[in-house]
Amino acid sequence: MTTIEMKKQNKVTTLSQFIAEEQAKYPGSSGNLSKIFRDIKLAAKMVNRDVRKAGLVDILGAHGSTNIQGEEVKKLDVIANEEFIHSLSSGGDCCAIISEEEDYVRHLNPEAKYVLAMDPLDGSSNIDVNAAIGTIFSIYRRVSPLGSEAIEADCLQKGENQVAAGYIIYGSSTMLVYTTGNGVNGFTLDGSIGDFCLSHPNMTTPEDGKIYSVNEGNYNKFPEGVKKYIEQCKDKAMSARYIGSMVADFHRNLIKGGIFMYPSTAKAPNGKLRLMYECNPMAFLTEQAGGRATTGSQRILEVEPTELHQRVPVIMGSSNMVSELESML
Ligand code: AHG
Ligand code: MN
Ligand code: MN
User: Fold this and answer.
1) Which is the closest atom of ligand 1 to the Cα of 124?
2) pTM metric for this prediction
3) Which domain holds residue 304?
4) Residue 6's pLDDT is what?
5) Cβ atoms within 10 Å of 251's Cβ, excluding its own
6) What is the pLDDT of residues 189-208, one digit of tens each?
7) CATH number at residue 308
């Protein structure tokens, strides 16, 4: 049965319907969060359109600049960043956006009550080779009063203050997976109707898994406990799976069970991944799906941010696997 036929029989729930139903459970709700999702959805569809055309139009390759973190920026990084910022600023429901691709806070509507953090294009190194990439987002309620420009304290909040978080995976199909602290739900984009439809209700991650995901090229520089854990994974004949797009590695492990890590190394004591754009949203999703996320010594969601582009070591996934690695550190 096609989605259109299912829709006629009322068997399809679109993302917008689902969000409206969730919102109706909170009668006093202003609806602003739902509007942010509307804007995210639009930008996601635009990025999806660009990703699907990559190779045919001139959007592959380097942009020719580096970001504030010293990384090479790809054309699609810039395009995705602009598409999300444009959609969210026209929507008018965010007072500020912080982005991996923006050096500083981007101030939007001072009357709005939400701040959005994003990694507009995750897995940049995979763009040119047609492997899965993603977008990660996270939403906070501002702490400063409405009506004035957002301040640092609005943008640098602990992960446990997130109101919502999610990702879009541009993979063999395109999905949007999100949480508002009430479980995790996944929606698949049906291109024939141009909408995300509920395909993975109430996602939970297995307590144990058989997959470990880590860049083993860095093995020699890992802390001893991490090395020992990796050896144990090999002794147990677990599967190593790592594509180098956090969204794709995370999505697979969420569904199948497993552990994802980007630990500290001698050269990069805080690892590589960014707290505000990558670790916090994924940690929120992990916990909401029943898993655990830690730096190795602290729950990710409790880390007090000090800088926009701050990095933290991260270990996340199936709860028993994370606890076991933690006990070896
Ligand atoms: P981004 O493309 O947003 O810079 O993120 C890349 C990240 C993440 O997606 C992935 O898990 C990690 O970098 C891979 O890094 P390594 O190549 O060092 O393993
Ligand atoms: Mn990323
Ligand atoms: Mn990125």
Assistant:
1) 2
2) 0.95
3) 211-328
4) 64
5) 22
6) 999 999 999 999 999 999 99
7) 3.40.190.80
